[in-house]
DNA sequence: GAGTGGTCTAGACCACGGC
DNA sequence: CCGTGGTCTAGACCACTCA
């Protein structure tokens, strides 16, 4: 095998995470302990953990130890939300569930999630509100298989953060996501829900989110009103 | 001083780049040479270069050496362009200059570029075309001071890549950028140039680009037709 | 074969957090 | 005070590039 040792260590650590031995928020063994158990030097473990913490899969805390990233901490909860107020306000986000149903997935979403067309999914519709103004209309699909028993009540309990729900109730962590953005016109139903005129320009954000091993878990389409907000990114 | 050694090495390397001693595309001294000249170990130089190459300021090439990132290489030229065809086509980009003028900057753009309101800037308008269809209408502002003597002919010569022009003719490298995205309606003038109906929804992408030391150099507003294309990002 | 970056080790010391 | 991650060193060997 010509795979570098630190890559192998990375894979071993990832296996512990995928298998559920180490769970979100857990403190993992120290670098020295890992070095002993994998029979490599501390520097090699360090390099593996370095990369995993760049990928935001692990978090180091000097003096304390290395932890598995979690969506349950306040600061990290809105990690995937790129919408910010153009005036710099920091308003509280609220979520209102519109509908929750079990249905069959269409072929487009099935492709994105590596599911068979027509297989069983949960479909979630909701409105996200900032400062009491409706801003985002979400339509979300997840396979019923890993989320067995999910219901509307559970979603309402977690008020807003689906990713916290996935993690705490099903042990599924969202690690990264792809987004595709278009400008579209608000249709009749959308314009009513977002309280705008029909035909008003809005952002259509299509997102696929992935867990360990780049396995796609969730597809969503977010329709966002960007009159007073904007989508923000950094390019390198 | 409590600044880690490798950060100090990073700063020294950055100074070489800012001062113009090492220019875009140059091969910089080897890790061993740098370690000797800075009186630190090779490992420390390595860590400094590691970070600079993550920031895409330097590029390592095994067996050859470490190079200063350049916009002149084909693959890296469209680094900041996030617009891709929804159908997966890879069409050639062409640029058509609409206007080039020297004018006074308004206060909004002045703030973004750390200029005094009313100071002298070049204003560039152009249309970017993919597969012979107009897709992006750009309006670009840069201070006249670092770009003394710039004219329309120089822009036409470089066909498309302004960043290549900045780098090769003025030694100014764009390292990173912030973008703010909104959905807007096409106004009369815009709709004519992009060959769409008035009021059609388009993306408004506002970008500020930075050089060494996070110094803002260029402000631009890109109006993008996203009927057959989309803006793509990855979230971590 | 010489020179470059890439991996790996062993060991020292520092800075931080918490008992 | 101890254990953690963070920095730094010195030296070995590997993998790649090019003359």
Q: How many domains of chain A? A: 2
Rough outline of chain A: globular
Rounded average pLDDT of chain A: 93
Output the structural class of chain A: alpha+beta
Order of strands across the widest beta sheet of chain A?
A: 5-6-7-10-9-8
CATH superfamily of the largest domain in chain A: Chorismate lyase-like
Count of DSSP-assigned helices of chain A: 7
Order of helices and strands of chain A: HEHHEEEEHEEHHEHEEE
Assembly annotation = homodimer
Architecture of the largest domain in chain A, CATH level 2?
A: 3-Layer(aba) Sandwich
Features:
11 strands; 236 residues; homodimer; Arc Repressor Mutant, subunit A; DNA-binding; three-stranded antiparallel β-sheet; six-stranded antiparallel β-sheet; Chorismate lyase; globular; 2 domains; 36% strand; alpha+beta
Describe this structure in words.
Two copies of one chain form a homodimer. Chain A is of the alpha+beta class and 236 residues long. Chain A folds into two domains: 5-68, Arc Repressor Mutant, subunit A, CATH 1.10.10; 75-231, Chorismate lyase (3-Layer(aba) Sandwich). Helices cover 27% and strands 36% of the residues of chain A. The first copy, chain A, contains seven helices and eleven strands. Chain A has a six-stranded antiparallel sheet. In chain A, a hairpin with a 2-residue loop joins strand 6 and strand 7. In chain A, helix 1 packs across helix 3 (42-54) and helix 2 packs across helix 3. The first copy, chain A, is globular. The model of chain A has no long low-confidence stretch (mean pLDDT 93). Chain A binds a DNA duplex (19 and 19 nucleotides) through residues 2, 4-6, 30-32, 40-44, 46-47, 49, 60-66.
